């Protein structure tokens, strides 16, 4: 299975000058979980995506990468 990027979380954290540790604390998650999300080795559930969008003050669609060719 090919590794596929589905979110832009790592880039958004950099843009917003936030760290994975900060996000982990805000969400009550382990920093390892956030790291996996940032490297796209696993993905947050929809509820977490909504919380992340509010915490980072971005649209939900700004977090996700959509490849129109595969829809």
TrEMBL record:
SUPFAM superfamilies given in the database record: lambda repressor-like DNA-binding domains
Checking InterPro entries in the record gives: Cro/C1-type_HTH, Lambda_DNA-bd_dom_sf
**Molecular-function GO terms, alphabetical:** DNA binding
HTH cro/C1-type domain residues? 23-63
Upper classification of the source organism reads: Bacteria, Pseudomonadati, Bacteroidota, Bacteroidia, Bacteroidales
In its keyword annotation, does this UniProt entry include Ubl conjugation? no
**Is the keyword DNA-binding assigned to this protein?**
yes
Q: Which SMART domains does the UniProt record give?
A: HTH_XRE
Q: Give any Pfam family that matches.
A: HTH_3
Key words, A-Z: DNA-binding
CDD domains, per this entry? HTH_XRE (cd00093)
Return the protein name.
DNA-binding protein
């Amino acid at each position: 299975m090919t590794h596929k990027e589905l979110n832009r979380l790592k880039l958004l954290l950099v843009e917003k000058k936030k760290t994975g540790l900060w996000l982990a604390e805000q969400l009550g998650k382990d920093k390892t979980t956030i790291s996996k999300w940032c490297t796209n080795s696993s993905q947050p559930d929809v509820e977490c995506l909504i919380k992340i969008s509010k915490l980072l003050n971005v649209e939900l669609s700004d977090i996700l990468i959509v490849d129109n060719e595969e829809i």
